[in-house]
Amino acid sequence: MTSTPDQVDQLAAWKSREAGLYRTVPYVGLTVGALLTAAAPAPGGISFAPDLLVAAAAAAWIAWFINLHPGWGARRGLMAVYYVGLISLSTVLVLDSPWYGFFSWAGFLHASLLPGGWQFVGVAATAVLTATSQSAGPPTSLSHWLLWSVLVLFNLGVAGGLTWFGMITGRQHAHRKQLVEELAETNRRLADTMRENEGLHAQLLTQAREAGVTDERQRMAREIHDTLAQGLTGIITQLEAAGQARDQRADWQRHVDTAVTLARESLTEARRSVRAVRPEALETARLPDALADLTGRWSQVNAVRAEVHVTGHAHPLHPEVEVTLLRTAQESLANVARHARASRVGLTLSYMGDVVTLDIRDDGVGFTVTEPPVARRLDGGYGLTVMRQRVTQVGGELAVESEPGGGTAVSASVPALAGSSG
Predict the structure, then answer these.
(1) Phi, psi of 211, deg, nearest 5
(2) 264-277 burial, b for 16+ CB within 10 Å, e for fewer?
(3) Could you give the CA distance from residue 380 to residue 71 in angstroms, rounded to a whole number?
């Protein structure tokens, strides 16, 4: 692609040299003819007018149409007038002195200025003049006519063939020039497109960085809510219970020990969240076992009966899917402990082909679910929002059903994306 400007320059250079040749050759032939006529007058010449005066008129004619007005070359009608004048002046000069055949030969070159098939008419007229000069004047005898005819046919054949090939070459040259110009234009557009793409690429990189920062902030917000916020809430609850049981040494110690355990677990989970590592429960156990362990500890701390049921064939899921279900159960249980005043909670993990669902139901006080569903003001209304974001991120859906006095049901349905069994 980088050679296109060079090709354009080469074509322009050759065209310029060709035009220079066409403008120069007639004057050379005219000069040679005049010098030879003066040095060795041809015996067959017919003097119609002073040859030098006619030669000067021919030079002026060419200069006016060709040299002084080069733009007229594209005006075919005007060039026809020029060519008729050129042939007329050449005829006078050749009849005056056959040496001016050197000048009449310029008619072969300038025939290309005529439109279409008229070029061959100009070549034929020039062939007649050239043959006349080559035979030392107009034919005067039978043998002279024969020689003249042979010369006319020879000149016509050679010049006609060259003209034909010249026309084909000219068309190819014009087509090649058009292709080169189109290629150059395509290259310019491609360069503009590449510059535009560079700008778009830089913009996309900026947007990707901003999106990455936003995603990381949202991830950290969810992890802080699922670890630190819930852990601190549990610690506060246990410390408040310990304060109320000062006079009961065993209960006080149990609440303090539970608070310490929650603090350590929250600190561990917070560190794992910063490093974007899976929760420790899923590192050491399968999802059903992790849910059972989570529910058992929650039931012991909150003194609420809780059961876990698993249906279908349990199999490893994608890490993100398992983390989503575990965090959903964790958040739902935290909401039950803070708000539901329930006496019983049930978790059901169902493996159903391409879908896995987790249902958390309680028999608590319930609440009114708005349409479209929005989060109840739990911890500023962020708990259900976090659950919904997590489930949606893995291509799942979260549904919440509740009514005052009728308990609450939270259902998370996610794709059963397979994970490593190791």
Answers:
(1) -65, -40
(2) ebbeebeebbeeee
(3) 83
Residue with more model confidence, 232 or 87: 87
Helix, strand, coil percentages, rounded to 5, for the chain: 70, 10, 20
For position 151, what pLDDT does the model report? 80
Per the structure block, which two tokens stand in for 180? 């080169």
CA dihedral 21, 27, 31, 37 (to 10 degrees): 110
Residue 216 burial (10 A CB sphere; 0-12, 13-18, 19+): exposed
* Residues listed for the chain: 422
Q: How confident is the model at residue 278 (pLDDT cuts 50, 70, 90)?
A: low
* Tokens (6 digits) for 18: 């060709």
Instruction: Report pTM.
Output: 0.44
Write the DSSP string, 134-147. Answer: HTTSS--SHHHHHH
Residue 27 is encoded by which pair of tokens?
């004057």
Segment holding 398, helix H or strand E: strand 397-402
Give me the amino acid identity at 4.
T
- Taking residue 74's Cβ as centre, other Cβ atoms within 10 Å add up to 9
Burial class (CB in 10 A: 0-12, 13-18, 19+), 156: buried
Sort strands 355-362 and 344-352 into parallel, antiparallel or unpaired. antiparallel
pLDDT at position 380: 41
What is the distance between the alpha carbons of residues 71 and 137, in angstroms, rounded to a whole number? 36
Q: How far apart are the first and last CA of the chain?
A: 54
Which of helix, strand or coil describes residue 41?
Answer: coil
What single DSSP character describes residue 67? I
Nearest to 407 by CA among 335, 328, 355, 308: 335
